[in-house]
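U., I forgot to send this yesterday:
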Amino acid sequence: MNEPITHNEQFFSLFEQFKNEARPQTFNMNDRVLVVDLLNTFMRSFSASPAMNDDGDHCGGLTGTLYSMGSAIRQFNATRCIVVADGEEGSKRRRQLYPDYKKKSRMSHNLNRTYNFKNDEEEVRAMKLQLGRLVDYLRCLPIQFVAVNGVEADDAIAYIVNDILNESTCKITVMSSDRDFLQLVDDRVHVWSPTKKKLYTPKEVVEEYKVSPKNFLFYKILMGDSSDNIPGVDGCGKVTIPKYLQLLSDDAAHSVDKILKVSEEANAGKKKLKFYDNILQSKEKLALNEELMQLQNPYIVDHSKLEISKKVNGEITRLNKHEVHLMYIHDRLSGAMLNISEWLVSTFTVLNSFALQNKTK
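Result:
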């Protein structure tokens, strides 16, 4: 017969339970990694934010990016933040494949019309000054900054996600409104679109596009990408692609050859659809678009891969509050960024705790 539990035993049992629940959780640095597409975030902020410093100069690109990045760090409880930018001549290889890559007429970046630059030259100058100053701030924060000559940010991010931080326990959120990253989405990698305020998991990708992440590349190949000046196939749009190529909703990845084969079979009879005919007449375009858009195996030379790995696996900069405050005062941002001290503490405390360990894992 079991002995009755005494009041003391009940007390100590509850005490141990409460103590365990109150004990702070321990995190691994790679538990929740936020990877920021810097230029995408900066251009969105520069265009959308009318913020001005105390002298009346536009500073929306600088402050908007810092606020947006900080908001994502807090929202996703990031244990690590990696900010990635295009390296010098990063687009060179793609321009060699397709000379018109990213070649388009310049559009005004001032979408909100709240701050009116005198001319295009003043706007471009402000953009360059703010982007350069932003990098100065980033180098004082407990994040890792990755920019490698000859490598575009898209490729660097894909390499970091696929090959460097590829442990099953490493959960990654890529922050960008660029839809190219949706081809990387799986149970471990999600994409946060700040413009849509939407987190893309495999489920959200299928619900919105009727295409699985594993086949999102071919959705983009057929659609093209106006932002990069890459034309798609005539008649292939967000309605017709999932309607006539239902195999793209499969969880298994398909190839361009498979799409061509399905198109041939669909038009094998007397009744032929222009949709499939356009695809069959665009074999070279499909091959080129795949080379330009695919991120599963980005083309990066070995020495650049080594440089990216060194930056990701290197030490994390410790938070330098003093230098941030000096720049903040010099840039006269008191009206554009309120409570800078509180913002630094609430945003970077966890990240800085890992930086203080002086090593990465």
